[in-house]
Amino acid sequence: MDALSRREEDALIKATKARALKECDPVVKAFADCAEGRTITVAWACKEKYKAVQECMLEFTGAGPMSVARQEYLRLRNEQQASQRPS
Description:
mainly alpha, rod-shaped
């Protein structure tokens, strides 16, 4: 079976986003530092830093990386199921 259940898909998305935030931490921190103490002006004062955060997150959560993560998850799940089957 090469499909994920909704619960598995949600867990995979959550784990991938968590990894992306960890990998993009310096970029996110730079944006947070820029946004600190600002309200409306954050929209234009930190525009480039926000764009950098989006690009970094997309690098880890875009269609390509999600497809790779999904395939790896399926591979591991299938290996686990195969090892649990009686011989």
